[in-house]
Amino acid sequence: MLRGVPGLLLPSRSTMLATLWLVSLSLPTVGAHILISCAYKSVCLRALLTGNDVVLKCDHPKALWYFSSIWGEDPSLLSSMPNARRLPGGSLQLTNPQPSQTGFYHCQSNDATLLVGYELDFQDASDLHITHKGLHQKTLGNETLHLGGQIVIFTHWEPWQDCNRCGEPGERKRLGYCYVQEPLEKPMPCWLYLRETNRPYSRMRPELQVEACHVPCDRGKEVNQPYFVFDIYQPGKLTNSMWLTCPLASIYRPVTWEADDTLLTWQSQLSGEALNTFLDPSTGGRQLQVFRAAIYRCFVQQEFMAQFNPKSSPEALEAQRDGSGARPQVAPEILWWKAGSVLTGLKLALLAGTLLALAGLMLRFCRPSQGAKRDCVVLVK
Predict the structure, then answer these.
(1) Between 20 and 30 A from 122 (CA), which of 236, 257, 328, 380?
(2) Domains, in order of start, for the chain
(3) What count of other Cβ atoms lies within 10 Å of the Cβ of residue 89?
(4) Is the pTM of this model over 0.85?
(5) Dist CA 214 CA 218 (whole Å)
(6) Which long-range contacts (C-beta less than 8 Å, at least 24 apart) are formed by 83-90?
(7) What is the pLDDT of residues 182-207, one digit of tens each?
């Protein structure tokens, strides 16, 4: 149930954001992906991380997508891949991609003309080597191997992402991918280079590096923005932890969390000081594991995205009323947002139509940027 405070209609940008968020309640991957593009009739080479959604751009409404793996198999129509979905405009969304999906993706028209192609290396995010500059931790060094010739394995670093906070100290991260280079040849992502070779090398790991940052706030940025508040069940003795997921967050975007207004940092976690929370490196902090009841807030690209309020489970409340005092056993799956359980039974078509209509009529939401006064909330239950 959506409850708002009567007021003015949202600005157009906020209305679009609200629409996206409402739809994302039923489609959690909407907006949480990175968009990969390539020039028309070109083939682009790219390393990415597993478990983090991507969209491959192809501007052709009747596009056909084919995939061939690094093992040299014949191209197959992607309708057989369960986590691949062609979007209405022709682009392709890959949800939770895995290392086995490393290979060549090509988009073609009905007459078999290549529109765009992508050679993708999905490197294992669960094997990330994470370091923090403030702790003087070392990134992976180069390594030389002899595979019929001398090659160098090294980390190709992406640019630093934006600082995850403004107006006060924050952190920023950058991703590094495993690459291989032969003398006088262009570098290639590791698994695209090795292809059929299944021999493992310990150096073949992606990286995540973090450093402190401090940037001013953009005064021209909108302050009043929509955000959501979720009820979550408190961890108990039998379920002593739970995972929270920040809507629209991604390893490819700046994200930060607060617990009872206290900033949760990578530096604290990597130094062993954080005892009650755990930022998941494989999602870049999109998911947070919590071990105690608190009010948790997440921010994406310095904007307040969601708040999670602790609440006793219905079974615990019933036990208290009965006076038994026994703590009930709660299945882990009911520890997720209450919003998810409410929307599960809705049909997608009805949901999308209804939510889009609601978004156009939504009354005032307030979502302040970090550092701004919080004076209004909207609850999703």
Answers:
(1) 257
(2) 2-9+220-380 (2.60.40.10), 32-123 (2.60.40.10), 125-213 (no CATH)
(3) 11
(4) no
(5) 13
(6) 87/55, 88/61, 89/59, 89/61, 90/58, 90/59, 90/60, 90/61, 90/62, 90/63
(7) 988 999 999 998 876 666 678 899 99
